[in-house]
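Q&A log
Question type: sequence-to-structure
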Amino acid sequence: MKKYTKIAILASFFGLWLDSFLNTNLQILLGFLLIFSFGILHGANDLLLIKKSSAIKYSNSTLKWLGYYLIVLLMGIVLFFILPQIALILFIIVSAYHFGEQQWQNLQNFFPKWLITLFQLSYGLVILLLLFTIHLHEVKEIMFGITNSLVPNHYFYIVFYCFSAVFLSLISYFYWKTNKIRTQIRLELFHLLIFAIIFKSSSLIWGFAIYFIVWHSIPSIIDQISFIEGTFSLKHFTTYCKSAWLYWLISIIGIITLYSVFRETHLFNALFFSFLAAITFPHVIVITRMFYIKKAQKKPSHY
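Response status: OK
Response body:
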């Protein structure tokens, strides 16, 4: 993953350079193309991960985990229509934790689980809230379309400052507590600076797409392939895509159908985000389980 980090930094600055040649509409179009390709792909193999996890841990639990997956998926959809405000908050929290867990998965070898969970959540929220506060007007419009409620500006800043304080306090504690992760901490703080520059210089969708694809989706795909196959290679990536293509296609058809039918109505944002939440909620559970099993399979790592 160290080699990929260098590629990610180069890709981020390439995206930033490309930003100067694209108008807002092209940024949105290209951003959605990236999200609908690698972004959807990275969550399209959840059933294979469930099967792999169940085969390792419990020989007869595949159907049980598939049942849990479907229940969480349906609950996510229903919640967005019954309680859209609560559903949106949960969607943001779960997504933030998912981003933090991916980026800081190796911390579980050094600190208590509850502390790591709080840190991973605060890290993800800092990234999302940084994006939100920079593009506050667009974000508020999207949220209003989903919840029919207008959130005051100062709420975003208060939450952002609070979780920034939590994140900085915890990362300072981690830095002081052990020297085994100090290099990673310095590198991740540099990455946050890159994210801030990208978010500030780009449109909402383009900035999010760069982060979501380059820093989350592709690393997640690499981790998933390594978990399934034992190692990552282009051959294994091809196999991964072949396994995921049907679920990926169904997701894309679902999004296109929603857009075609509801694009002119106020329901589209609610339907679109309920669809994303339906994918995200069970996906986060599957990935958390994958990291748990990976931890159980190996001895504590050293940075």
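Response note: The chain has a mean pLDDT of 83.
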